Amino acid sequence: MPRIAEARQPAEPTSAEQKDRYRRILRAASKLGAEHGLERMQMNDVAKEAGVAIATLYRYFPSKTDLFVGVLHSQIQWLSSSGEGVVTAAPAGERAAAVAEVLIGAGRGMLARPQLATAMLQANNAAQLQGGREYTEANAAFHNVLIRALGVEEPGDEDYRMVRIMEQTWYGVLVSVLNGVIDADQADDDIRLASQLLLGPRYDGSAA
């Protein structure tokens, strides 16, 4: 029978060795999630692939929901701060387009591994209902990436509301692609249109 995780907060890795194990777990979950999806992937297989004890896995990720939200969070962190994923503020007149391109790039990356993308979105939805720390941190990090692309130096509640609505729109578009309703090119066009309509009037001065 599947193990039922206790309702507790995931532990945080602190030492270099713990952080290495944590990263190995996320890599293993990404690999196996891409192969099997959320439901068919087993936590025991993740622990084996990562080379850690099952107790270590559950210490950091008490459930598959926590685990795949952790994978999503790690991708957002990469988008925010490393390599080609660095997001910089767009100049005036290009801010809505900049947010659209960030979302399109992130979406293309996720859709390259559709089973993993579905697992991350399912986990994020479940975590939203639970209101756990991982969900809160992952979404806050993503909102800050979009705020940075908008070039807003001192964001207020209305700015965060705008990026939250864009994020929700983006999630819906991704689900449509994963369900075969639209293709990736149509998704890109939809995101650009949504960003222009929602963000253009406020941040670029364009007519809606």
UniProtKB/TrEMBL annotation:
DNA-binding region: 42-61
Family annotation (Gene3D superfamilies): Tetracycline Repressor, domain 2
GO MF term set: DNA-binding transcription factor activity; transcription cis-regulatory region binding
Domain of life (superkingdom): Bacteria
InterPro entries named in the record: Homeodomain-like_sf, HTH-type_TetR-like_transc_reg, HTH_TetR, KstR_C
Domain HTH tetR-type: 19-79
Keyword Transmembrane carried by entry: no
Keywords noted in UniProt: DNA-binding, Transcription, Transcription regulation
Protein known as: Helix-turn-helix transcriptional regulator
Lineage: Bacteria, Bacillati, Actinomycetota, Actinomycetes, Propionibacteriales
